[in-house]
Amino acid sequence: MPTRLRLVVYSLLLSAATSNSLSAQDSTRRWSRPNLVKTNLFAPVSLFYERALSERFALQGSVRWLSYYERHNVNFVNVALEARFYLNDSYWLQHKDHPAGLYLSPYLKARSLTYINEIGYGFNKVGDLDEVIIKSIGFGGTIGYQWVSRNGFTVDAFLGIGAMPAGLSSYEHTMRYSTVISTNGFTFHSLDSRAGISLGYSF
């Protein structure tokens, strides 16, 4: 291969390598905070984890739970997985360390609710237990807006609605001497609503 041609080939290879290196560095700089952990101020106990996968797309997993005993025992667990599509223009998003701005988010959710109540109170207790167990799987959509500060602190405001179809749900009402499988309550529990303001930190 002639010397001049070799120089041209080497120059092209060097240029391509430099371009890829700069692109990788720019990508690393752009997503210096790809992870985000936050909690919903409107939920009893909640934890959200969001992972940025591209300029406009992120995956978020969340879990909410509540457990207390006051005349009755209540245990509630809610797990959701959602895909976030950010709608802002690319130039604006490129200047953020984590995806921010207006987004649309379809989600898939599973939840379980257990309610146990001892019939009667004080000296009037009859020793029988009233137990309700509801397990549901559903889906829906959310719209929201996420702010990301230069220091990594975030505020996420969102509102959404979905459904927990009866075909993917079970409602079990149990007394001491009998078990009744019923659809009572599905009208109420088939509607799923989401609303909140979450505070978090990206890293």
CATH class of the largest domain: Mainly Beta
Helicity range: 10-25%
Distance between the amino and carboxyl termini: 50 Å
Mean pLDDT: 77
Rg over CA atoms, rounded to whole Å, is 26 Å
Number of strand elements: 10
The general outline is elongated
Protein name: DUF3575 domain-containing protein
InterPro entries: DUF3575 (IPR021958)
Signal peptide: 1-24
Organism: Spirosoma foliorum
Write the layout of secondary structure elements.
Blueprint: H1 3-30, E1 35-40, E2 46-52, E3 57-69, E4 72-86, H2 90-94, E5 101-118, E6 129-148, E7 153-163, E8 169-174, E9 179-181, H3 186-189, E10 191-202
Antiparallel strand pairs: 1-2, 1-10, 2-3, 3-4, 4-5, 5-6, 6-7, 6-8, 7-10, 8-9
Structure report:
This protein has an 8-stranded antiparallel barrel. It has helices at 3-30, 90-94, 186-189, and strands at residues 35-40, 46-52, 57-69, 72-86, 101-118, 129-148, 153-163, 169-174, 179-181, 191-202. It has 2 domains: 1-30; 32-202, Beta Barrel (Porin). The protein is elongated and about 60 Å long. By secondary structure, it is of the alpha+beta class. InterPro entries: DUF3575.
